[in-house]
Amino acid sequence: MGTVDGAGRSLAQQLLADGEQVVDVPARLSARARLLDTGHNRKTDANDGHSVAVAAVRAKQLRVLDHDPQLEALRMLSDHRDELVRRRVQSVGRAGGRRVWDERGGGGAVDLAAALSQGC
Q: What are the pLDDT digits (tens) for 88-118?
């Protein structure tokens, strides 16, 4: 897999969680393989995937990755937060312009959407 420290880290962790073996192929190695394989350094998805695979098979001493439980915990927290935000937006949207009775002290009608958006 090419460059697992950046955007590829999440995919690498998912592959590891599924039991796949993942190695980190530095970009310079895949670029060199692409140049030698195709005769040019044009980067397309097909050429890039093939060059990363060729570099992974031929290279020695590539870093083999293992599952990162801290990253998995952060992903779960992030997913949970996204779900909470989605539910809150959904609740405010459903409230629309409805008014409800405020039971917290003074009573009276309160705009539900405004109350939800203020965190009440």
A: 888 877 766 565 555 555 555 656 666 666 7
Per residue in 69-78, is it b (16+ CB within 10 Å) or e — as a string? eeeeeeeeee
pTM of the model as a whole: 0.46
Residue 103: exposure state from Cβ atoms within 10 A (0-12, 13-18, ≥19): exposed
118, two tokens: 């203020």
Strands (E), 50-119: 63-64, 99-101, 109-111
Radius of gyration of the chain, Cα coordinates, nearest whole angstrom: 25
Q: How far apart are CA 82 and CA 22, in angstroms?
A: 28
> Residues 63-86: pLDDT tens digits?
888 877 887 788 889 989 999 999
Provide CB contacts within 8 A for 58, sequence distance 6+: 33
* C-alpha span between 116 and 96 (Å, rounded): 11
